[in-house]
Amino acid sequence: MSAVRSFGPVRVVDLVHPAGVPAEVLVRDWLAGELGVEAATLAFDRGPHGRPLLQRAGVDCNWSHSGTRLAIALGDGVRVGIDIESPKPRPRALELARRYFHADEADALERLPAELREAAFLRLWCAKEAVLKAQGRGLAFGLDRLHFDRLDGVPRLVTTDAELGAVATWRVEPLAIDGLVGSVAWRPSTAGDTTA
After folding, report:
1. Does residue 76 share a domain with residue 90?
2. Is the pLDDT of residue 192 over 60?
3. Which of 33, 89, 122, 124 has the fewest C-beta atoms lying within 10 Å of its C-beta?
4. Domain that holds residue 37
5. Are residues 95 and 77 in the same domain?
6. Which residues are CB-neighbours of 63 under 8 A, at least 6 positions away?
7. What is the rounded (10 degree) CA torsion for 84, 187, 9, 46?
């Protein structure tokens, strides 16, 4: 098992995800160890948009898998989202950015040298998806409803749709996991989070 990494109130681990094993089984086992409970006592519900919700006061978790890796984030007093992706050629990255991202992000990606564009696109995709997963909405909410800058390095959230809350409440951190690109995002929990 990989070491647990801490990001303030969030702990992240990455595990081998064997083919045919449901991610939730691995998530439940890891969470049980972290929380000091039996795996069978951990209950999950689903939010209205399908987000798994750990039924345990004061903590939240989220997970993402890519290939043979599974990344799990556990947050204390926060809503957390995580996304990991395999780096691979994405020749349509700029076309996808123009279609789905904020116009300023697509412009920034286009200005980057071609050899840096795909990596920047992937970092941005992961950052956006981590925020949307934390919120409980997913990609259907609209990738253009949140805007990042600094695409040539670590993306920084600069504006969000009102439904996502104030930018100042969000933290987004990059992850590098076993050759994968990823991000973890969180914001303080609120009373309405149990139904998100």
Report:
1. no
2. no
3. 89
4. 5-83
5. no
6. 23, 27, 52, 70, 71, 72, 73, 82
7. -60
